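To assess whether the prediction recovers the assembly geometry, we first specified each molecular entity separately, as shown.
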Amino acid sequence: MIYEKYIRVLIINAETEKIWIEQREDLLPYLGGVGVAAKLLEEYMRPDLSPLNPAQPVVFAIGALSYVFPVMTKTVAMFISPLTGELGESYAGGRLATMLFSAGFDAVVITGKARRPSFFSITPEGVSFRDARSMWGTSNEDNIGRILRELEPGAGKRSIIRIGPAGENQVAYASVSVDRYRHFGRLGLGAVLGSKNIKAITVSGGRSIPIANYQDYIKAYRDIYTKCTSTDMMAKYHDVGTPINISPLNAAGGLPTKNMQQNRYEHADKVSGEAFSEESLVRKMACVGCPVGCIHIGQFRRAFAEHGHEYEAVAVGYDYELIYALGTFLCIETPSEILELIDAVEQTGLDAMSTGVVLGWATEALQKGLITEEETLVPLKFGEKEPYLAAIKNIGSAENEFYTCLGKGVREAAKHYGGEDFSMQVAGNEMAGYHTGYGSLIGAAVGARHSHLCNGGYSVDQSLQEFDPEKMLDQLEKEEVERCMLNSLVMCLFARKVYDRPTVLMALNALGWELSNEDLDAIAERNYATKLRIKQALGFTLENVRLPKRYFETPSLNGMIDEKTACAMLLKYQERVAKRMNGETK
Amino acid sequence: MSIQVYTGEWARRWMNAASVEISLDNAPLTAMEAACRCGIPKDEIGLFEIGGSMVPSAHVLRDGETLRVYPQIIGG
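The predicted structure of the complete assembly is given in tokenized form:
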């Protein structure tokens, strides 16, 4: 992409095993990343078909600054989410962005369904389609990674993404593992790849591009690198990492606990970020191109034989959301137990956040008699790890009718079995680990992909001095639009304060993009508008969003959330969206 | 007149100890000012707690209080 006057798109038809490459000048106004991916999704998607219909596309895209600047480490994937039925958008780090750059592709579009379980190997020369029948249905995902590394070229310059059993069985919140420890986690990309019979994709390449204006580039690079490594801006992500959130959220009453029956966890000190660091942390890693190293790897011990003292050490990546979803949300008391649950989710190929929330609902539903052990097969109980381990496997394998339903997400499960009031989801996406106030709740509802990452609503709550619904909607909307520009780059959002507007412009201009602040504003608006059109085409409207009652029954960090006020805010935001769609705002 | 400011491990890169005693002198001191006086950058400071209750950043500290300072809630 850099120095080119087009976006280079690789299009793969999985059924016919045909590929072609397009050089799209018309995509340049979207800059890259989420803008390009959204535009391609809009072009290829079929609103008349279900999300898991093989005709639906999956789009991967990198950004205008990918690979060449620090922390520009992510790839965006866009698809129709089988979990929410509308816009699917997910980001992953690892090596994928670097390898797509090295292979020479700014975006990849995949349509159709392979005729047999397959994996694709993308190189600068094109795409090879390989038989993955021997890998499909296996239980040990680490072995799949080993096999792929043996089979495919490019050791050291390769990225491997793959689905697990949950993706093969099209569980609506199946994830995609990326190079170990990273994931396209949310909204069910794993299921979409599974519906296409795609077990894995490997990407490798060796493209090298001389930097045209080396002086400007190296000055910009050093400036950004120094901010990342020699100031306090990114240090917290490396030190304890996001698990540091457990203590302040618990103290302030914003920590979702026990299926959000509580906003504080009595054992928070045992599973705090500091506790994880002291008891379990063994290593920190970074995505390629990142000097921060925010990936925290913990270790737990597991017996692998019934007799004798035979143990293995299992390394597992953890962060705040996983500790919340598989820890406080289920009342699990120790880091090693939480790590074991994270590993189970990893091996099954599920999104950890959704899994924790559906298990929380199922546990409470069982307690209340809405379901029985005839459905759950195991005695789910808050604080008990073993039944949860079994349940995770059962979700992945769609063990019975109940687990098949659970695999459609907590909204669907609660519709079927009851307990909608305590099914902790917003617009179908299971909740993130912040019960901080109107910002986190409304932010999730109005966010394009119903994620806390859309607009950082929890952050708005944290700095709240006085609650004003209109001002809060202004903040959420402004942040969401801005992220539509940042995610076209495609950066790790941890570094969004490093990449303020002057820095973004400095970096872009150093690579020959002659852009101004006004141009970035226009790109942000254009990309947001594309997303809104996609959501509208898929039938989404905020008027249909029903917020579970528990949000209004459990106090948040900022006190009780009033249901009427929250619903009114949703309608107000829908009016804003309607005005945008009618061209009444910029 | 003095107060105790307790942070825990997260603030170790700026403070030598997990807690520090601060003299109130004769001028009123807010929770945020006390935390900054410990050397913690303002952007890193999140929430404040005294005696099990959260207090705003502008809370004026009283003699003998123990102020617990939490980091910013972070994420993407």
